[in-house]
Specification:
three-stranded parallel β-sheet; Glutamyl-tRNA Synthetase, domain 3; 2 domains; Rossmann fold
Length: 288
């Protein structure tokens, strides 16, 4: 049984790029006769905007993107994340880290493909004398992670050398995205993940964690990122405007369709019948 999901972060209303991911995941699920779930990634409470989650859900409803079951909230699943972290600690797969952001930025470890600082392993063999733990990291196993993205094609990564041991519990006490998304996808039985290509670099880390926990790895499909004329990803930071039902034809064109002059539910039903992942451009970003 196909089970997909859309997992927005309530840091603001849906913009065009977020709506692209929502529509693509919805169409992929419905075309397969499967379920489509909505999960609010509201762990990073300092960044969450009051009322943003309700705004996102209203936009999905207005666009005819009806989800199955109840909306899930990461903020209500903290005990599950803690239990998995405790399991990894007990198995020797997670360890405490005392490094600060400045220390990591000043290290000579270089940058990952996504521009992040690669962790140099300073605390891998124990905390330095006199240092207290700030975060918890996943002890990444040696070797490569490979998967076949349904749009972007074959992917191969060495997480140990490209990213290093990544954070599971942040210094501010917030569970990291990589841990939460892996636990949630497994707990909800997600079989297919459709999301933006800006998260393509996170996938190998998530698969490494899935393998350590003996979780099933979903299929992945990463659609292009919507960018502005300056080449910047559409986001709250780049002042992307709120998207809505009137943007559906443009969203479908972005995904490789040539939509007819239909509106609302009729357009969406047409798109479900016409959905084919092979239409989606296999590029990282598209200017809109």
């Amino acid at each position: 049984m196909y089970r997909g999901r859309f997992a927005p972060s309530p840091t603001g209303p849906l913009h065009f790029g977020s709506l692209v991911a929502a529509v693509a995941s919805f169409l992929d699920a419905r075309a397969a006769g499967g379920e489509w779930l909505v999960r609010m990634e509201d762990l990073d409470t300092p960044r969450c905007v009051p009322g943003a989650a309700d705004s996102i859900l209203r936009t999905l409803e207005a666009c005819g993107l009806e989800w199955d079951g109840e909306v899930s909230w990461q903020s209500e699943r903290l005990d599950l994340y803690r239990a998995v972290l405790d399991r990894l600690r007990g198995e020797g797969r997670a360890y405490p880290c005392a490094c600060t952001r400045k220390e990591l930025a000043d290290s000579a470890a270089g940058r990952t493909k996504s521009g992040e600082t690669a962790y140099p392993g300073a605390c891998r063999n124990g905390l330095p004398p006199g240092r207290a733990p700030r975060a918890w990291r996943f002890l990444v196993p040696s070797g490569t992670v490979d998967f076949d993205d349904r749009v972007q094609g074959p992917q191969l990564s060495n997480v140990e050398t490209e990213t290093g041991d990544f954070v599971l519990l942040r210094a501010d006490g917030i569970f990291a995205y990589q841990l939460a998304v892996v636990v949630d996808d497994a707990g909800q039985g997600i079989t297919d993940v459709v999301r933006g290509a800006d998260l393509l670099g996170s996938t190998a880390r998530q698969i490494a964690l899935q393998q350590a926990l003996a979780y099933r790895t979903p299929r992945y499909l990463h659609v292009p990122v919507a960018a502005n004329a300056a080449g910047e990803k559409l986001s709250k930071q780049t002042r992307a405007p709120e998207a809505g039902v009137n943007d559906l034809p443009a969203v479908l064109r972005f995904l490789g369709f040539s939509p007819p002059d239909l509106r609302g539910g009729e357009l969406l039903r047409w798109a479900v019948a016409e959905w084919n992942a092979a239409r989606v451009p296999a590029v990282f970003s598209v200017t809109v």
